[in-house]
Amino acid sequence: MKNCVICEVPLNNQNKSKEHIIHNAIGGSLEDDEIYCKTCNERYGSEQDKAFVQMFAPIVARINMHKTRKTKGTSYSGIMCDQDGNLYTAIYKNDKVVKLENSDSKYVKYEKGKFKTLYHHFKLDNDVFKLGISKIAFNYAVHCGIHACCLERIFNYSEKKLINNPVIIPFIPMTLFDIVMEMNPVERIFHAVRIFNNGQFLYAYVELFNTFQYYILLSEKYNFTECCNIDKSYGNIIEMNEPLDRDLLKSVTPRDYKDVDIIRSQYHINVDELLEGLKKYHNYDCCNQFKQVEMLFERIGKTAYEKIRKQSYIKEYKKLINQHYHSIDFLNVLSSFGDFKMKSIFCQTFQFYTIYDDDCVNIEKYKKNLPDGTNYSSSICKGLNSGQNWISYGHMKFHILVNRFG
Ligand SMILES: [Zn+2]
Question: What's the pTM?
Answer without folding.
Answer: 0.83
